[in-house]
Each structure stands twice: as C-alpha cells, then as structure tokens.
Amino acid sequence: MADTQLTKKDFASDAEVKWCPGCGDFAIMNAVRSGMVAAGKPRDEVAIVSGIGCSSRFPYYMETYGFHTIHGRAAAIASGLKVANPKLDVWVISGDGDSTAIGGNHFMHVVRRNMNLNYVLINNKIYGLTKGQYSPTSEMGQISKSSPYGVIDYPMTPAKVAISLGGTFVARGIDKKMKLNEEICVRGAMHNGLSFMEIFANCVIYNDGAHDKLVNKEDGADYHIILKHGEKMIFGATSQYCLVQDGFGIKAVRIDKADEADILVHDEKNAEMAAILAGMRPDNGLPIAFGILYADDRKKTYNDMVYEQVDAVKEKRGRSIDDIMQSGHTWTV
Amino acid sequence: MADTQLTKKDFASDAEVKWCPGCGDFAIMNAVRSGMVAAGKPRDEVAIVSGIGCSSRFPYYMETYGFHTIHGRAAAIASGLKVANPKLDVWVISGDGDSTAIGGNHFMHVVRRNMNLNYVLINNKIYGLTKGQYSPTSEMGQISKSSPYGVIDYPMTPAKVAISLGGTFVARGIDKKMKLNEEICVRGAMHNGLSFMEIFANCVIYNDGAHDKLVNKEDGADYHIILKHGEKMIFGATSQYCLVQDGFGIKAVRIDKADEADILVHDEKNAEMAAILAGMRPDNGLPIAFGILYADDRKKTYNDMVYEQVDAVKEKRGRSIDDIMQSGHTWTV
Amino acid sequence: MAENAKLTSAEQIVIKFTGDSGDGMQLIGNQLTALAALDGNDVNSLPDYPAEIRAPAGTVAGISGFQMCLGDHKIYTAGDAPDVLVAFNPAALKHSSKFVKAGGMIITNSDSFTEKSMEKVGYTSNPLEDHSLNGYDVKAIPMFTLVREALAEMELPIAAKDRCKNFFTMGVLCWLFNKDKQLVLDFIQEKFGPKAKKPLLKVAQANTLAFKAGLNYGETAIMFQERYDLGAAQIEKGLYRNITGNDAAALAIAAAGEKAGLQSFIGSYPITPATDLLHYASEMKDVNLVTMQMEDEIAGICSAVGAACAGDLAFTTTSGPGLALKTEAAGMALILEVPLVIVNVQRGGPCTGLPTKTEQSDLLQAMFGRNGDSYMPIIAANSPADCFDATYQAAKIALKYRTPVIVLTDGYIGQGSCPWKVPKMAELEDLRPYVNFWVPEAHPGEKYVSYKRDPETLARDWAIPGTKGCQHRIGTLEKDINGAVSHDPMVHQQMTEFRKAKVDNLAKVLPDVEVNGKTSNKVLVISWGGTYGAVKGAVDRMIDDGKPVSGINLRWVWPFPANLGEVISQFDKVLVPELNMGQLSLLLRAKFLVDVESLSKVQGDPFREYEIIDKVNEMLGE
Amino acid sequence: MAENAKLTSAEQIVIKFTGDSGDGMQLIGNQLTALAALDGNDVNSLPDYPAEIRAPAGTVAGISGFQMCLGDHKIYTAGDAPDVLVAFNPAALKHSSKFVKAGGMIITNSDSFTEKSMEKVGYTSNPLEDHSLNGYDVKAIPMFTLVREALAEMELPIAAKDRCKNFFTMGVLCWLFNKDKQLVLDFIQEKFGPKAKKPLLKVAQANTLAFKAGLNYGETAIMFQERYDLGAAQIEKGLYRNITGNDAAALAIAAAGEKAGLQSFIGSYPITPATDLLHYASEMKDVNLVTMQMEDEIAGICSAVGAACAGDLAFTTTSGPGLALKTEAAGMALILEVPLVIVNVQRGGPCTGLPTKTEQSDLLQAMFGRNGDSYMPIIAANSPADCFDATYQAAKIALKYRTPVIVLTDGYIGQGSCPWKVPKMAELEDLRPYVNFWVPEAHPGEKYVSYKRDPETLARDWAIPGTKGCQHRIGTLEKDINGAVSHDPMVHQQMTEFRKAKVDNLAKVLPDVEVNGKTSNKVLVISWGGTYGAVKGAVDRMIDDGKPVSGINLRWVWPFPANLGEVISQFDKVLVPELNMGQLSLLLRAKFLVDVESLSKVQGDPFREYEIIDKVNEMLGE
Ligand SMILES: Cc1ncc(C[n+]2csc(CCOP(=O)(O)OP(=O)(O)O)c2C)c(N)n1
Ligand SMILES: Cc1ncc(C[n+]2csc(CCOP(=O)(O)OP(=O)(O)O)c2C)c(N)n1
Ligand code: SF4
Ligand code: SF4
Ligand SMILES: [Mg+2]
Ligand SMILES: [Mg+2]
User: Fold this and answer.
1) What sign for the dihedral angle of Cα D473, D479, D482, D488?
2) Do D64 and D176 have their domain in common?
3) Distance (Å) from the C-alpha of residue D57 to the closest C-alpha of chain B?
4) Ligand 2 within 6 A of B71 CB?
5) Within the 109-168 window of chain B, which residues sit less than 8 Å (CB to CB) from chain C?
6) Which terminus of chain A is less hemmed in, N or C, by CB atoms within 10 Å?
7) What is the DSSP letter of D55?
8) Given an 8 Å threshold on Cβ–Cβ distance, is C487 in contact with D61?
9) What distance separates the 2 farthest-apart alpha carbons in chain B?
10) Distance between Cα C488 and ligand 6 center (Å)
C-alpha cells in the first residue's frame, strides 16, 4: 500500500461518520484527505490529533493513526508527538472552541514555535458538541443558548492572531468552496512549518447559515475575495470591486473608480499585508479573505531546531550517561 | 484622605519591599503609583490583582486592596472582580511568564473583551521568581537555566498580539525611562477599556542587561524610538534616523537620505500602523517602539456592555425571581 | 369495543419512551409528567440520550429514551423495568424491548417498520409479526396513517404532520391512564395557541387534532383490553412545576443572591451535562444574576473568585473534567477564605469518559483533588428538585464560613426532572446575616485584621474592596493573621489547622441523619446524592416486606453529620450503593473503621431498586 | 595551646550553617559533605532557604541554612539539634541559636557583629558579649580580620577576600573534626586550579591561603579544647558522589530511556521546588533526553502524553499546584493507557502555599485528584539518592503496565543531597523487555487490536504511529476493545474494572515490606517518602534502647505491598508520622480498618527523630 499512490478513499476508515447530515465538517474532511494524499506519506506514518468537539471526532473517520484527546490540548499533544517522532506527518484537527477558547494558549504557542504540524481549525463560530453556546469567534450580538440576549464579547480573528505570532503559513477556506479547501490543505500539507488552516464550516443545527452572507448565490461574491499569489485582488459578483492600499490599511473600491496600477497584487510572502488581509471583515466594508494569506517557509521549525541542538551537543560534549553520572565531585569507598 | 489630593507616597504600603536591589520592578511601581494618582480614585476604591512571580509581589507594596493570586490567572480574576464591581479602579500586574506563558489564554481574552482594566506586563524576558528559566519573550539563543544550550523558541511580542486581538490601548515602556513610564501609566489609567502596558524591566540576577542595548548611554538611542502622537518618527543618538513607510511595512532610513514629507507621523488611532510599530525589532534593522502605540476608546468595554444588557433585560422582561420560579407549566395541588 | 376496557387500579406505572434523538422523547416525557402531576400523581423521570454527536436517525446508537414512573404515593426513582414501552421505530424497539417487564405493554408505530428501517438495525424479519415479542402485549399502531388521516384537511407538509404522532401518542396514553384530556388540550393552547409567547396556530390545531385522534383510537380500537387508574398521591399542597436539577440549581443561584442582598455571579465554561444550568441562568439577567462564559474552566472559576473577592455571591458550574481543571483555583478560594460555590454535575469518567452518562465518581476528586491539605464542605443533591435546596444551602455555608463549598449533582439528577413545589422567595431563609462584611462603622475604634476569626465558625473578618479605609492585601501564600506572607513554621501549622477545623466544625450545626426504619435492624443502606431515590424506594419496599433493613441519606457528604458514627455502629452490616468504585465507602471506612460493603455500578445508569434489594437480600443471607 | 586539644571520639555530629542567602551555605555544606564522605563517614543533609524573593541581606527573613549530620554509621536524617552551629552574622545567630543542643558549640564571625547589623535584627546589645549565650560554647572568630591578614599579599578586592571566609571556616572545621586537609586542598585545585573547567587561579590561591589560615587557627587558638573524631562508617564499596533528589531523578530519566532503548522526553513547566530537575535534564541533550519547556503545566504533561503516544519514554515534572493543573491530562494518559511518569516534588500547600518548604500533602491529590474512578500506581522516594531508583522503577512499571505512574518526592529530598553510590549503566535492569511495542512481524496472521490485554499484567497491546499497517484510532471517551467509542453499559463497567485491576495487580509483584525490628513488638511506625530517614533513625535508636518498636517504609504507596495488611495486624498500635494532616493514615484506615495514629506536622520542615521517639514513648505509655 505504501508503495502505490494512495487516493483520498484510502484515507477513509471503516467507522460510520456521525456528523449531522449537512454538517460542514464533511467537506473539510474531504479536503484534508487531499492534503494527505499530496503529502505522500503512507497511512501508517500519518497521525491525527484532535481535541474534543464535533469536529474533533475527525480522527475516527480516517485510516491513519488517530488520537482523540482532551478539550483544547491537541496542539500541545501533537507538539510532543512531533518532537518525539519528526518523521510522522502530523495533523491537528480542532474546533473554534477547542482552539480559541480552552485551547487558546496552546494554539498561540504552537504557532509561535513554528512546529511542523498541519493545523486545521474548523470554525463554525459555535460550540457544536455541547449543543450551541457561543465561542470566541461568534459574532457580537449572536444569540446562542448561553447568550440568549446576544453575545457581548468582541469576536477574535484566529488568522490575524496567528500572523501576529509569526505564523509561517496562514490560510482560510470555507466548507462550501471544496476546491479552494483542497488547495489549502495540499499546500498546507507540503509546507515545512506550522500550517494554520482556518476553514469556516456550517453547523446546520446550532448556527445554521452563519457564513451564508459570504457564499450565497446572489451577492455572496461581494463579501469575499479569494487570494491567489501574484494575482490582482479583484472580487464581487461581476468582479466589480478591487482592493487598494490605504495608508497602512486596505480599502475596497469599485474597479471602475480605481487606477489599474493601484490594485493590490497578492504576495504570499508579505506578512504585513497578510495581517491586514486576515483582519478584513464585511462590517468594515471589506471582503473576507480566503485562500493562502501567507506562506513562507524560510523560518526553521521547532522540531528541526530540537535535533540541530541535540546534534550540536552530541558533537560538542558527546558524553555517555555513565560519564554524566560519574562526573562532578566523586570519591571511591 | 479620599477628599484630599493623594500623592504617590500615599499609595505605598508599610510592607518592606523585597525585590533585589536594582530590580527594574521598583521603577515600574513608581510609575503605576503615578497612574493611580492620576486616576483620582481613593485608595480604598483601587484593587490590584497579580499572579505569581517576582513582579506579582507588587500588591503587597501598595496601600490599596491587593490580591496576590495564582500563576497566570490574574486577568481572569480581575475580570470577575471588575464585572462584580465596575466602580473599582482595577489594575493587573503580571510578569512575562505569568502573562504570556501560563496566563496566555486569559491575556488574550481579556484584551479581546476590552475589559476596563489597567494591565501592566512587566517584561524581564525571564522567569525571575523560579530563578531563571527562559520565558516566551526570551530571545532566540538566550542561555538560561532551562536552556543551557540556548532557546529555540521564537520570542513572542505581546504588544503586537494585543493589537491583533483588537486591544484599545497598547503602550510600551522600559524601567530606565521613568518619565515615559509615568506618562504611559497615567494615560493607561485614564483610558476606558483595557490598557495594556508592557514595560521592559531588568532582572539584575537572572537576565541582567537584557535590555541594555536599547538604553545604553553610547548608542542605545539608535535602537529605540519614543513615539508621540502627532510627532514625526525620528530617532537615534543624534536624531540621525527616521521611519518611513515601505509597502505595508516600515523601514528606517538616515534622515538625511529621507524626504521630509515621507517621515511618518505617529497617530495613536491608527491600529494598522500600531501593529507594525509594535513588531519592530533591532534585529530587523528597526528600533523598538516605546510610548503609546495605540489608544482609542471608542470601543465599548465589556463591563459596560454587561450592565447595558442587564438594564435592557430588566427593562424588557423585568421579572422577579418569584415570577421566574412560578413560570412555565405549573399546577396547584 | 375498547369502551368496555377494564379499569385496573395501579399503585405505580413505569413508562419508557424511545425514539430517534430528534423525535422529542424528552418533550413527550415532560408532557406526560405534567399531565400526571396535574392529576395528582407523583412522578419521577430519567432521560437517557446518546453521546452528543447526532447519530444517524434510525440506528440503535442514535436512540434517545425517557423513562418515568407515575404513582399514587411518593415516587423516588423512574422505576425498574417498564410496564409500558413506547418505541417509535424499529431501532427504538431493538434498543429497549429487552428492558420491558415480562408481560408488559409495547406500543409502536407500525408505519415505521419499513424493510429499510428494519434492515438498518439488523431485523431480518418484522418483529411485530414474527412472534419474537411473544410474551409482551404489543400494540402496533399505524401512527403516520392515522395522523395523516386526522390531518387530511390541513395544509401542512407531510413531515410536519408526522411530527404530530407525539400528541397522537399522548392521546392514546391519556386514554390508557385515564387522565383528564382537558389538561392536554389546555397545554397545547398554552404552548402554541394565540396567547403563547410564539403563537403557532397551525401547530396548535394539528396537535389538537392528532391528540384527539389518539384518544379516539384508545376508545375505539379493540387493541386495548385494560386501562390503568392511578389514584392521587398524598402530596404537599402548593404550586408545582416540573424541574430539572440544572434549572433548579440555576434558580437557587438567583434566589440565594437576592436573599443575601448580593448580586449573584456565575463564571463558567460549557460542559455536558452541566451546560443547561448556564443556559437557564443566562436568561436571568433581569434578577441580578450575571453570567460570564469564560474562555475555559480555569477562567470560569477564577472570574468567580474575583467576583467573590468583590463581594458578589459567586458560583462556578462544571462537570468532572472541568472540576479537574479548576482544582488549583479552588485551592485559591480556600486559602483566601472567600465564599464560592462550585456546582459539579458528575458524569462518567475517567477523563472525557462518558459525557452524557451519569456517575458519582467525582466524590474523591471533590474531597482531595487539590494540592496540599485542603478541606471543603461537600453537599450532594439527592433529586432534581433538591438541587434547589442543596445549592441554596451551599451558598449559605459558603457565606457563613467564608469557604468554597462543592455541590455534587450528576447527569441523572441534573438533566432529569421531577415535580417541584415552587417556594416563595419570602419564605426562604434570609441569608443577609451570613454576609456580614466588615465595615468600620460596625467596629468603632477597631482596625481591620483580615484573618481574624469568629471564635465559633472560624470565619474570617472580611472587608471587600470599596470599604472605606479597609484597604489590605491578601494572597495565596501562607499568611499570618494580617494577611502578610509568613514562613513561620507555627503559623503554617496553625493556619492549616484552622482551615481544617472550620470545615470539621460545620458538622456541629448540620442536621443529624435520620434513619428510615428501625435502628435495631440488621442492615443499614447508606445513600448519597442520586442514589437516594433507589435506596429509599428499595428500603421502603423491604420494610413493607418486614425485612430488617434501614436506610439513611447523606446530604452533606463532608463533613459527616455528627451522629453518623453512632447510627452506623448500631447496625451489623452497612451497604453503600454507589455509581462508582466505592468512593463514599472509602471515606466511611477511613472515618469509622467499619467494614462497609460497597455495591458499585459504573454503567452510566442509575441504580434500580431491585439491584439494591437483591444485594441486601444477599447480605441478609436470603 | 590547642595542640593538646582533646580528641573525643563521636558516633555522629550534627552541624548547621546559617548565613545570608548570598553567603553560599549550600556550597560550604556540600564541601563538608564531600570531605566527610571521602573520609568514610556517612552524611545526610538538609538545606533550608527562604522564599524565592531575595530578602535583604542581614535580615532574619533572608537567612539560608544548611544542616548536616556526619556519622560513623548509616545516617538517615540531617539530625535533630545541632552540636555545632556556624552562624556567619548576627541575623544568622538570631535565626538559629535557639536550635543548638544545650552545651553545643556556636562558631561566628565576630567581625560581622557591627552596631548596624545587630540593630537590624533587633539585638540591643552584643550577644557575643552580653552573656545571653551562656550555656553554649561560643567561638567568636574575627574571620574577616584573619582572612584579610592571610591574603594581605594578594591583589584582590576586599569583597573577594571576605568571600574566602568560607574556606577559612572549612579549615577550622577540618581541624575540629580531624579530617584530612589534603582532600580540601585537592578539591580547591580541582574546582579552580589550572585543570578546572573554568580555571580561576587567583581564587584557587586565595582559598588555599584562607583554608590554611583556618586550619592554623584551629591548631593555635586557645579557643578549642576539644576535637571530634568520627570513625569511618561501614559503607558499601564503590564510586560515590553527592547528589540531590532532583538531579538523581533527572539521571534516572536519562538512564531509563537508554535502558529501554527509547528516547527520553520531559514536557514540563518550571515550578519550585521541581525546577532543578528540569535544569539538570536540559543539559543532557547529548544522551537522547529531549526536554520541552512548555507554556504551562497542562501543555507540559500534554506534550509528554504526545511523546508517549509516539513511543518516547515520557515524563513530566512538577510540584503541587502544577499537579493540580495536570489532573485532567493525567486522566488522559490513564484512559489511553500509555506509559507516563509524573514526578511531583511536593511543597507546602494548599494553593501557592509555601513554595520553598517541604511537605507531603499531595498524596491524596496523587491518589484521587482526577475525575472519575482513576487509579494510578504511586511510588515515593525516601531519600535524595533513592530518587534515582524510584524514578527508574516508575518508568519500568509505566512501560510494563502501560499506565501513568506518579513519583512523589518533596522539597526536602528533591533539593537536599546525600552521598550516592553511582550505578553503572551496564548493571541497571534492562527495560527493553517491557517496551514490547506491537509489531506485525511478531504476530504473523494476527490483526492488531488496540485494547487487547496481556492476561497477567492487563497491559494493552500497543502499536505506535509509524508501525507498518497498524494504523488505528484511540481516544479519551470510553471505548471497546478495538478503541472504538462505546456507550455500552457493560463495556464501561468492564473497562473501569480493568483499569482498577491493572493497578491492584501490581501489588502481586511488588516486594514485600520489610520490618525493621521484631513483628512481636508493640508499636509499628510506618514511614513513607521523606519521613523514612527520621523514622528509621528513631526506630533504630529505640530498638537499641530495647523498646518494643518496629518500623516499615512504604516505597510504593499505591497499591500497598501484598503483605502490608498482615504485618500491620501483628502490632497493637500503628503510628504514621506524616508532613500533612494524616493522608496516608486515611488510606491505611480505609484499607485495613486499623485505628492508626497519625503524627502530623505541617511546618515546612521534616521530622526530627526525637519527635517520633517522643510520640512512640507516649504510645508506649512512657
Ligand atoms: C475540559 C472540558 N471542558 C469542556 C468540555 C465540553 N466541550 C466539549 S466540546 C466543547 C466545545 C466544542 O466547540 P468547538 O471546539 O467549536 O467544536 P465543534 O463542536 O463546534 O466542532 C466543549 C465546551 C470538555 N469536553 N472538556
Ligand atoms: C501553577 C504554577 N506553576 C508554576 C509556578 C512557578 N512559577 C512561579 S512564578 C513563575 C514565573 C515567573 O516569571 P514571570 O511571570 O516572568 O515573573 P518574574 O518573576 O520574572 O517577575 C513560575 C514558573 C507556580 N507558582 N504556579
Ligand atoms: S451539531 Fe453542528 S457541528 Fe456538530 S455535527 Fe451537527 S452540524 Fe456538525
Ligand atoms: S530575581 Fe530578578 S525579577 Fe526577581 S526581584 Fe530579583 S532582580 Fe527582580
Ligand atoms: Mg465550533
Ligand atoms: Mg519575568
């Protein structure tokens, strides 16, 4: 099996998938399988670590090594796993609650350390598994079981935070855009460093239609843009808008009002621009940015540096444990 | 006492200060006292919440209500305290380990919620209290007790992360610059919303001189800039450098090579620029930015919104507990 | 003609509903509860639903259940084997038929027994026809057909019509149990009629028609030879509602704050099966109850400690894994000596375990799950309704002793419901005397000393921020009477002893345990928390049968009531049934050096009375 | 002339050094330890330092101490009251003089008794002159004067010269205890001489001169009438070094990995008093020991669980509050059934408590501080050197049983040091047989089943990621034998029983407890962990005195060794001295229904032998 080219189907386990019919997680699983195919590792060299949440049931459905762990800690667990065996292709699958609420700290630090993991955050802006409480990515005013009068927390934008932490690969997709998600997962899987892939998903039960504004047939195209490296930032149902620089920020203008030369061209390696792109929101008159916002693998990964240091110390000191035990001030009786 | 104008001395408690002689925390305590004087609250309406660390011994030295709590959780504790009694002037005092390691999650969320707290992060880039391990703000390669061969974690930049989370007041000071710190603390104290004040401090015992490059007499001025709202960004021992925009980023150039009109002017209300300023580092050829990087209090605070919602629900539903208990499907026996 | 069906009077009837998770088993169960309760029966119920992921419809794994027991006397559990099972589809039948009492009745929707649906659960032939259910009284009712017929005139999608099968079933049951149909008709109006919060007139009409069709079906179908008649129970007079333990606890939180003259505060993070408490509390913003959903459990309890420090009446709510995360901060409340109530709705463990299943396995965690010697009072609610009283009591003790208090409930009582006599706020104990903040006005000439203690309760003097002139510092390091950090060996010894004595002292004011039965009996069965009902029911039955068995219930699990040792010493044998591997047993053994026997069950399911009876009989050598 | 000083032979001598935190008490203590050990004495020591904040020099709060006991026989504690106190300044004298044995010797640096320094600690007159120390044998030595004189020729700052007072003192002690001066001279060369890692030739010279000055002072001063002569102890032959418990544990972690053929992994977060373990381990990158300092304790243990899942030999290290935070994740290792060793260096609690003080109050947290029924083996190291063996044993059991194991040490043994017979790697037990990963090659024709168990140990079959064709899924929900999530009631019952039985089973292979003394004696004293030394010393002394007292030490605290119940039952009375409020007592009472007496002490300080002797005498009615 390892020798022949695997297909997506090879990555499906026998277990019956228990997400609600229509749940956005199905589409995302499909994209992740593409990523694994692209990474080219045999299934027994792939490990998936998830937390707790609907999305975190993911590993059960995959014909790889899978670890369904505890709520919020997948990033830390995966970090240990990767450092222990850097040859594995390690994926973290986590929900918005899992990653940005209880798991916020580990999310922050795994990005900062640039651990070579593929990190998929399935963002449905709700706690699905516990039946519908708001999450840190829920919108202001959102009604949920625990916010019957509306959320009063400002939402957080994980992709933006990831960039502020020096993330080396930051992408955003949405369940409905299957091809885009595949592209993201394939690129993410190949990236050497932490690949942060936030994918919006629809929770049909507790937050149905949360992302509809962005992808509805009528004017959804007016509210999002798909970024492509080297291409002009043009969007809208009839490509009627474009993005141009505005001081240190970005603004959207009608393309017919813009100077062609001013239209921004996407550059995956521009971290400052990526931060701005990540923060764009329709309620600020800007489209949500999908695609690969940032990708640059010139920064060393933590797991590589661990062993560089190990090798250097071995080279320099190269003691045996007996040496160490017998060192210091010893005496013989 | 409450009626007369308090002075800094009034905020000193009787307890003997037990920091090492020369510790940077002394200077910061002085600045915070200025902030409290400026805020104008009587001492019995001020509460300080700290975590655990050398810096977190702070409350004992202050003639206010003080809570020396547990490691990393001061922000969460202070959030409950502030919501329970919004009239109090509440300060959080925390170290770099306390805030960005174990307390990273609460730091992130308290900023996101824009809780009206004054949050002082004393950043000595080391765990002082536990005798010298590296922290998430320690530099790559830094030698410490737990990194005898050098740190391999990329450092995090708390101010930048705070901005990415929608922080409404973000400032940076350094122990040696007493006047600047006072300005920061006074402005922070007056700000309605979360005032994040990161102040670099010297740990004379475990990380002595960590910030010396920035403030040494010879060329320290070449490595930092003090931002002032409305003023041009010029720095250097002989004001020989200035900052100019470079795409979405910023670069430093010799002032004699720059077009006067290109020299950036600091604007406290420009969040995008603040993010770039916060991320500047000498090893990227840019000066560390001190001063008030960002300040804008147009965003509502969480604690205000809590009670707006409470008032709205009282207005709209206005039930008594008896009403609620007796509601639903009841019957009489 | 069923009109002549026999009216058999019964003392209690156990009914179980099972169907797909989306089928509304809990709803129909609650409706029947209310109907029976309105009619004067006592009722106890037990929901049983699958793990949170919505399993595909029509599979055994996706079945939700709701069991209830109606009686003409006080009912303590949802009963053992059902007399009547209502199984809405083949999967439900497969799931539950084995539980039904021999000769019991099974009602199903025969329209749902399609080839495909039977195949899905592995029936190779139709169990309604292949005699595999011989021995049961099977009522296969073509519910869809009958309902669609009844609603033929109405313009409604088929799916919506089919949903009315629940009220159809209610009609059948209303007839079967001889209940007053008007109560259901009123209920439909109340819920969906013009005066409802969200009027859904069509739904009201459809459900009314379906309900009546069900009633008629009972009356006219030849299938039913028997009707049950349950007399009214002797129930205390008053206003009642059906309530879950989680809702009851939420109400207690609001009520305790009001009666203490304080704002109530909940700092929490959602976790099954405690979330409903947070949901209900979040709705009560109009009664000075502030809820903060924090970023994690640690922040949940920490915000509550902060609120407590500011003088709110503070709570945090969680379940096992959440309690595990809160332990360091619980120790903070303990060493700061501020009041805090931790409500822990236990679920199956260890680790993530069985989130939706009930268990009592957090007792030792509640006792010992903190670093250092750290004692806290623990109260265990023994029924859904008791969650109100237990939480209210916990708040009182927390305030009075300046201590964190843990309330243990479990999935069974937190999510299960029972009728609750609604208290009047005016009649609840006034908690203001226990608040007793230190204010200079009340202590002329005295200086505030933060760890000076009340000689009786050992509660410390407590001044909250904002109190004029009382600014002071406290912390989580060991401290002297002034709150100043102290490394003095004897200070630590003394403070540790104070903290222990404070909790031990509480035993002095706790009510003595009451023995159900004679103290000269042979076997004593000790219940705590959710085992109360099964033990009470079992012991009552055995006493009725003349067996030498007695029972007690521990409401405060720590400290033990003062007379407990004496009571225990009067029995030859002691049995502790627990939904864990013997946790209370361990505490009792250690404290009283008595060889208590542990009846332990960790199957995600509460005890049945018969399990206890069997065990006691064994102990009696029978 | 002191040359004629009497040479008194002694069996053991207790010496205490006290001085400012910066004065290097630990260093001088370690030097004397090495000196005495080289000379064949057995040594035990106890450092005692203030809370982490550097208190201002010259204050009582800022005093560091180091106590040690040298003997001509096996020494189990640092002794009770010191025979000799070396107090380097007025604050040190104030702090410690009260501890000295009646008639004991007090050596001080009289040059440090300035007006100002005495005033600072509240001496209104000079204690060296005002007769307040009558009853002690006070040696007031003008150390600065003498040292400066000895170093008059050297160009060194005064402060550097003054620092040499420590080697001056060593000289005095070397003379006083009749030790071989060459050993010290060699040591100085080794440490600072031309062949040292960092040669500091001036320092070497200065210390040599100061040391000789001290020796001469002893020889010539008329102050000393007596010298002590300690015979060599009967000590096992071999290579020795002085080691702290934390360092020993770090070495065991490296050694166990190597002997298991696995990379060792530590995921940790710094916390007093466990940090030194992490420090030492972080230096060992050249021997396949990877350390990750994570963002918090939870990430620390989680990274270790991740590493364990990948097949590393995984450890996490912490102290009380950290253990509190790790409990949920510890439950994860437990339900995943992967090996993991948690080293917990206990400190004073509850909450932040007394970080720098020792205590044994995490035992019940280690036992029960997790949600659900969750059993783990617990081993307690009983001396600094034993931390090596205990940690090594823990690793073996973790691997063999696929289970998390907790190692309990405490501040006293973690930071204290004692001579350690350095083992040879080749002689340590081979751990490879316990690794036993499941690989298809070893099971031709079989399919991998993740929770299939070894019939004897109940350890599960375990295939790590990367194993060809064995991909599978496991998780923290209850699961069946295949690792698939299961809500089946009987699966949960059975898995819970398996998890419990696995730990209970371990008792079968644990060594029986050995009784120190006769089993026909009246009183049995049970020690665990750090109380071992004091109990052993006390019981030995009482046995020598013919008292009917015996002792045992529990190394494995859970499960209890198989013969423990029988041993206990042979005694009339059982005493458990603990640095907590009676935690092991509770476990013993619950398990054996024996009325054990608890001698509890929570003063941040280990037991002294006399405290135990006094208590036993009381129990013997004497
Ligand atoms: C320690 C702990 N706290 C809380 C929970 C309850 N819990 C399980 S999943 C979840 C949130 C799920 O939301 P998200 O991560 O967004 O995943 P989704 O279900 O939406 O895919 C919560 C609060 C838990 N299992 N463990
Ligand atoms: C739960 C817990 N984990 C770890 C510790 C140990 N600890 C105390 S302070 C500290 C870090 C201190 O560093 P920082 O916050 O930067 O403060 P500083 O001492 O440098 O001012 C650590 C790791 C603790 N007290 N509690
Ligand atoms: S509840 Fe929502 S997130 Fe969970 S499986 Fe269903 S649709 Fe998906
Ligand atoms: S150790 Fe460092 S941070 Fe702590 S008090 Fe001393 S100088 Fe300050
Ligand atoms: Mg979600
Ligand atoms: Mg620090």
Assistant:
1) negative
2) yes
3) 10
4) yes
5) 109
6) N
7) P
8) yes
9) 92
10) 27
The pLDDT of residue C2:
41
Relative to the alpha carbon of A97, which ligand is closest? 1
Domain-ending residue, one of C229, C252, C267: C229
Note whether D443 and D56 are within 8 A (CB): no
- For ligand 2, say whether the CB of B197 is within 6 Å of any of its atoms: no
In this structure, how many other beta carbons lie within 10 angstroms of the beta carbon of residue C566? 12
Rounded to a whole number of angstroms, the distance from the CA of B271 to the nearest CA of chain D is 28
- Average pLDDT (D400-412) is 97
Q: Are residues D296 and D184 in the same domain?
A: no
The ligand that comes nearest to the alpha carbon of residue B71 is: 2
CATH of the domain at D44: 3.40.920.10
Strands (E), C298-427: 313-318, 340-346, 378-380, 404-410, 417-421
What residues make up the domain containing D526?
A: 521-619
Instruction: Residue A146: list chain C partners with CB under 8 A.
Output: 270, 275, 278-279, 282, 291, 293
**Strand ranges (E), C378-515:** 378-380, 404-410, 417-421, 473-475
* pTM of the model as a whole: 0.93
Q: What is the pLDDT of residues D33-44, one digit of tens each?
A: 888 888 888 888
Give the closest residue (by CA) to ligand 3 atom 6: A20
Q: Which residues surround ligand 5, an ion (CB under 5 A)?
A: A 95-96, 124
How many angstroms is it from A196 CA to the middle of ligand 5?
Answer: 16
Q: Which residue has the higher pLDDT, C219 or C377?
A: C377
Tens digit of each residue's pLDDT (9 = 90 or more) over D127-175: 998 888 888 888 899 999 999 999 999 999 998 999 999 999 999 999 8
- pLDDT of C50 reads 67
Q: Which residues make beta-bridge pairs with A225?
A: A289
Rounded CA-CA distance B91/C485 in Å is 21
Tokens of A294: 């940032």
In Å, how far is A160's CA from the nearest CA of chain B? 6
Q: Please provide the DSSP assignment of C554-586 as one string.
A: ESEEESPPTTHHHHHHT-SEEEEEESSSSHHHH
Residue B23 within any structural domain of the chain: yes
Q: Is-contact D408 D346, C-beta < 8 A?
A: yes
Strand C239-244: give its sheet, edge to edge.
B330-332, C239-244, C417-421
Q: Is D314 on the interface with A (CB under 8 A)?
A: yes
- Nearest residue (by CA) to ligand 4, atom 8, is B23
Using a CB–CB cutoff of 8 Å, tell me whether A330 touches chain D: yes
pLDDT digits (tens, 9 = 90+) for C505-564: 999 999 999 999 998 889 999 999 999 999 999 999 999 999 999 999 999 999 999 999
User: How many domains is chain D partitioned into structurally?
Assistant: 3
Domain that holds residue A142: 8-207
Looking at the complex, does the CB of residue C22 fall below 8 Å from at least one CB of chain B?
Answer: no
CATH number, domain of B188, equals: 3.40.50.970
Window from B42-56, B186-200, D222-236, D400-414 with minimum mean pLDDT: D222-236
From B206, B207, B208, mutation site for ligand 4 pocket: most ligand atoms within 8 A of C-beta = B206
Which residue in B has a C-alpha nearest to residue D356's C-alpha? Answer: B130
* Model confidence at A25: pLDDT above 80: yes
Domain total in chain A: 1
The predicted structure's pLDDT at residue D249: 98
Q: Can you list the alpha helix ranges (DSSP code H) found in B141-292? A: 158-164, 178-190, 212-215, 271-279
Dihedral (Cα; A217, A223, A229, A234), 10-degree rounding: 90
Mean pLDDT of C277-301: 98
Closest Cα to residue D361, out of D324, D394, D388?
D324
D458 and D282 in contact (C-beta within 8 Å)? no
For residues C219 and C77, state if they share a domain.
yes
CB within 8 Å: A149 and C285: yes
Q: Read off the pLDDT band of C4 (50, 70, 90).
A: low
Which of helix, strand or coil describes residue A91? strand
- Whether C461 maps to a domain, the answer reads no
